[in-house]
């Protein structure tokens, strides 16, 4: 099994700087080990501030963009210019502002029929990572968020994608939202060398507790999947999101955030 780290920062504004330091350090480590850095971005509102930081000094210059491949952990079934598109959010806040070769950006073509988009993206993963049949990619870093309902990526409670063990990417019908999403599957997320979850706000506190310390019930709290991760899992939480965690554990897990960019303790 992998290792767990929990970094607790003062508030939501401190979340992005802490995450940016860690992303930069992981990127450098991955370049040193593999000569490239593969990252799957998350959508939603929480990572937007992180992307803005990575697109500006000093992180813009510190990141090895020319050897970075950008993927996406999930996508809504919308066109790439839609307001709800994860790709559009990442492009406007990050990708348009860094020297990342266009051919190294791998978006999910979610404007297609959902099952076709999922199959196409799985082919992209297999080709980019050079995978044989049955192999799973080992991302350098997968960024994730957490919903109040305990979902992560587009793996929602009581949805079929939670049972998938062979496919890398699937269409996931989400009845509670009356929609479908395209998402990486559990085997892909748990195979990553690093997984980082960014969570802010008291409305997420119960889901954080269930994911980290609650009784195991993956169908109810899909984010518990990271308990099975093979690599290094880091939860970056603000104090509001961490309020339900065991007090002794919070003291043990708390990390100093007064470090230089790229440093990890």
Protein topology:
Blueprint: E1 3-9, H1 12-34, E2 37-41, H2 48-54, H3 59-62, E3 68-72, E4 74-76, H4 86-93, H5 114-129, E5 141-144, E6 169-174, E7 179-184, H6 186-191, E8 194-199, H7 205-212, E9 232-238, H8 247-253
Parallel strand pairs: 1-9, 2-3, 2-5, 5-8, 8-9
Antiparallel strand pairs: 4-7, 6-7
The domain count comes to: 1
The N- to C-terminal Cα distance equals 20 Å
The quaternary state of the protein chains shown equals single chain
Strand content: 15-25%
Provide the spatial order of strands within the biggest beta sheet.
1-9-8-5-2-3
Number of helices: 8
Radius of gyration: 17 Å
CATH fold-level assignment: Rossmann fold
Overall mean pLDDT stands at: 93
Shape: globular
Largest sheet, in brief, is: 6 strands, parallel
**Unreliably modeled segments:** 251-265
> Got a strand count?
9
Please give the CATH class.
Alpha Beta
Q: Which CATH architecture is right? A: 3-Layer(aba) Sandwich
Helix-residue proportion: 25-40%
Which structural class matches the secondary elements? alpha/beta
What sequence of helices (H) and strands (E) makes up the elements? EHEHHEEHHEEEHEHEH
